[in-house]
Design a protein that fits this description.
Elements lengths: L3 E6 L2 E6 L5 E4 L5 E4 L6 E4 L5 H16 L6 E6 L2 E6 L7 E2 L6 E4 L6 E4 L5 H15 L6
């Protein structure tokens, strides 16, 4: 299923299928960021500068992250921002043996996310459980 939205960003008109986006980032100041598929180009939408597009993306997130058959959406808090990430789109995870921190790269952005079990235990557990459930491997041990 597709979820096409049309919006103006950086003086260009975009038509984007949000179903192809694997990660969204929301900042405390309200800014919403996602990366265009296969390009690593971020789109940053703020409710004051592009209210209609901002609301369309929020509506999509609300609808999709709660229930999706083809995705495994998790909400992760990282560096004072909130990420909605479809873990099914992550192709590799790594774990540091000494510190047990987990790292992976966001799809289409190349941005590395590092989650430490002491500073972010809930999100750490989400990723560990996903990796075990999906692959059968124990990443942290």
């Amino acid at each position: 299923m597709t979820y096409w939205v049309k919006f103006i960003y950086d003086r260009e008109t975009y038509v984007v299928d949000l179903e192809r986006i694997g990660a969204f980032c929301q900042s405390p100041n309200g800014k919403l960021t996602f990366w265009l598929p296969t390009s690593r180009n971020p789109v940053v939408i703020h409710p004051r500068s592009n209210a209609e597009a901002y609301q369309k993306v929020l509506d999509y997130l609300k609808k999709t992250t709660q229930y999706s058959l083809d995705a495994y959406w998790v909400k992760i808090h990282y560096e004072r921002e909130e990420y909605d990430i479809d873990l099914n789109r992550i192709s590799s995870f790594s774990c540091s043996p000494g510190s047990r921190k987990i790292s992976f790269y966001l799809p289409d952005s190349g941005m590395q996310i590092i989650i430490h079990p002491q500073s972010n235990p809930e999100d750490y557990r989400k990723v560990i459980e996903y990796v075990h459930k999906t692959t059968g491997f124990h990443l942290d041990g």
